[in-house]
Amino acid sequence: MRVTFGVLGPIAAWDGTGEAVALRGPRHRAVLARLVVARRRVVPVGRLVGDLWPDEPPGDAVGAVRTFVAALRRALEPERAPRAAPRLLVTEGPGYALRAGDDAVDAWRFERELTAAASLPHGEAAARLADALGRWRGPAYADFADAPWAGPERSRLAGLRLLAVERLAEARLALGAAEEVVPELDAHVAEHPWREDAWGLLALALYRAGRQGDALAVLRRARAMLAGRLGVDPGPGLRRLEEDILRQDDRLVAGDGSAADRVWATVAEAYDRTVAPGTRARLESTVGLLRNLAVTGGSGLAAAREHRMAAIGAAEESGDADLTARVIGMYDVPAVWTRVDDPGQAGRVVAAAERAVARLPGGEREAARVRLLATVALESRGSGSERARWAAGEAERVARGLDDPALLAFALNGVFMQSFWRAGLAARRDAIGAELVALAARHDLVTYEVLGRLVRVQALGALGDFAGADRHAGEADRLAERNELPLVGVFTGWYRAMRAAATGAAPVEALEAGYRRAADALAGAGMPGLRDGLLPLALLCVRLTHGQDSAIGDLEGWGPYGPWVRPVLLLGQGRRAAAGTALDRVPDPPRDLMQEALWCLVARAAVALDHREAMRRAAGALAPAAGELAGAGSGMVTLGPVAAYLRDLEAALREGR
To answer: Which fold has domain 1-144?
Structure first.
């Protein structure tokens, strides 16, 4: 029997006929919901006990959990023979996991529909989004609004729902349904007034409905709300929309089949008719398209990653070393985040690039060699590989001898990605960013100018120069708006949330709201290497720096940051022995933008536990970064001055002599 599960509302399950499965009492439902949150991962029995009874578990709590699981198994697999192994709610290692299929949970289907809609024509996208939103029966995990273990997932899904509402409105606007969309958007902004995209859509809908005055009034309301409640000015998108409405810009008029669309269709048809299938020209043209697709974010970025690997495979199958080198090296998409989105694919790209380097004729094709070595440096980011660091330096050295600004910019991107071999190198990265900005501005390399400015935003943030970082963030936004680079706003939005956390005197709730807005923009951006664990880490940093150690949450949702967060969380729960064990196992952080922040978490736990070895490790790693703000170099989070952690470490080590 196929069972499906619903968490977009109260927790529910349905059998293959659509009939509701009886889930019995609230504890049974909590166990099921907790396992859905884990997304097929094992949840230890001890964790379930702590989540079900956060204050005082009963004496036989473990036995009670087993009873709940047994009852759930009977309800979910009623036809299973008495001694047959369960196939859905399974026992594994120290706990239980729910092995639900990819489409067995309404929240998972909703996310998939939202992602798919981004690449569909407006009519199909509107239908898919309306269907996806129709799956909601109430707030996500409605039965567990106060459960700490459900909080991060509830917030994430709520953000995705708001994004889906706005994308549906955008699709319907493109289809000419401005009048129908206005009341829906009016209600949406009233309920969620901090969402700038929603204000912009409402103003655009009013304008297209022939209500220019009302559209301008909405934008004035948005400005007043943002300034009054959040203390911020409208972003560049709202400012530009107001200017366009005042001058009645043609771009605000809806319509299918723009001149650009017609040109695209005509040229694509001519290309397909003229260039024979299977030619090298087609393969190289494909990589050019993938490069452009990657900067669109969302499903475009995911598709570019997927098809890039296929293009590399096709080039290698041809046996042409030069073609392979071009196909690999032409994908010079600027990258500013130091954790790859797909580590397995990155490793395959590096291996292909290394094979191509080895096959190039000695002393020839230097530009191709630079591109391949820069690719190795970029795709090995965060690995700490000495080979990758050498590749970055060699690519830069050779590129400086060639008269090719774009090639040098690509090489400098690789140098940036390999500039994390120790902590405290923000000034070095700022110099790289400055050279990228100057080089790109001279030669009209827009995406590399944006990269350089984002690098400077990160580096200047680490150095505490927020005025300088603000200037570069504003320039990056301006370039992104003019050149349709939507992913830039993800980074500048997170930077502004971090800046507020680092410099403002706002309440913790307001700072957390800023981070949640930034996380909304990241949803569906196609960058799991950036997204995973970032919002919980940001909220943790806010609470720690504001003395709210007891409110730092549970151990879920931390993604790649879990090992460094866990000792601090366990200390916050008063579990000192477990925290010490976790600290014993903490590895050195990856050599990336987060390393100073993660070392400061280690330092905090080590001082609290008087863990001498961990204190010495953290002090040695952090010493070169004494003049920086921990984590601010990421442009995402901060834990305050590194110097403060070094003082605490020094004092603790001195006292223990």
So the answer is: Arc Repressor Mutant, subunit A (1.10.10)
